[in-house]
Structure formats: C-alpha cells, structure tokens
Design brief:
185 residues, 32% helix, DUF4019
C-alpha cells in the first residue's frame, strides 16, 4: 500500500467525497491498485461510503460524518473536537466545487496495520472556493461485522492567500510534494 508524507494536515481523521444525488448515476469506479482488489460490489460500497462521508462533512452534518469512524479513531477524536475542526475547515475552505476519488488502493493484512483485515486508501482530489490545492486520502478498514469504517484521514491543502505569495515554479511542485494523486513523481 502506498504511503504518503503529510505536508499539511487538518487533524488525524478522515475525509471523503460527496454522495451521488438520489436517482443520479453512481460515481464511476476509480483506478484500482494494491494486492487485494476485491469484487466490484465491495469497491462500490467503499466509494459510496466515501462520498457519503464527504457529503455529511460538507453539509455540516458532523454527527453523521463522525459516525463513520472506527472505534480506534473515536478513542482519541471526540465528537466535539471533530465538529469544531471540520466546521473551521469548511469555513476557511469555502464552498466545495468538487471532490473526486481517483484511486482505491487495497491491502490485505498490511504489516504496519494495527489490526488484521482488508484496508483501502481512498485517494482524493478536491476543489474549494478558497483553496488553490486540496488532496488527501481516507483509510478504511473492513471490521469484523463486514462494515468499512474510517481509521485515518489525511489531507493537504493550500489556501489562495498563501498561494498568491508563491512563485509559479513553487506552486507547480506542490502537488507532488503534498503527495496528491496523479501528481508527477
């Protein structure tokens, strides 16, 4: 499973994409990677959970978004802290323009994992009104009950104000340095 160095993080939680509207066509499956790519139904379940998480977070439905976290995350991230941090991010980032999961990276029993099982990193890119750059990943784990829950969220972002003070060359290198999906290595 690919590792990414975090340059800027909101907090050690998870972020995903918005859910399709009722009656809308489902999101297309993104690129698949890893050593344990499951069937299409499992892929779609993680994709739907990810977009659902983002929809809840973007709309300020913080209890619903928080409910997608695994017990291991809830042990250190309280609902109040999560809601405060997510609301602060939403206010600073502005209106979401797009969230897109571009890679699902699967691993069965990775050696660095705290518990055995199937893990998937949902790598995403996003656009917000006040951000020049935003990307990251949600790490999901299939628990004993068969449900995928978020065990980690990392995101990197650059606001427009900071970006305006950077040279074009510096701006061009940031997606790679942030570990954004699709950035040239």
């Amino acid at each position: 499973m690919r590792k990414r160095r975090l340059i800027v993080a909101l907090f050690g939680a998870v972020v995903l994409l918005d859910a399709p509207l009722a009656g809308a066509a489902p999101h297309p499956l993104p690129q698949q990677a890893g050593d344990a790519v499951p069937d299409a139904a499992t892929q779609r379940a993680v994709l739907a959970a990810s977009y659902g998480y983002f929809a809840d977070k973007d709309a300020g439905r913080y209890p619903a978004a928080y409910g997608r976290f695994a017990a291991s995350v809830r042990a250190y991230l309280t609902p109040g802290l999560y809601a405060t941090e997510a609301a602060n991010f939403n206010a600073a980032a502005g209106k979401v323009g797009e969230r897109r999961i571009v890679v699902l990276d699967w691993a069965q029993d990775p050696p660095e994992a705290p518990a055995p099982g199937l893990y998937v990193s949902a790598d995403f890119v996003a656009r917000f009104a006040n951000l020049r750059l935003h990307c990251g990943y949600l790490m999901w784990h299939r628990e004993a009950d068969g449900v995928f829950r978020i065990v980690r969220e990392e995101q990197s972002f650059l606001d427009e104000q900071a970006a305006s003070a950077m040279t074009p060359e510096r701006l061009r290198t940031l997606p790679r340095k942030f570990g954004c999906p699709g950035a040239a290595d």
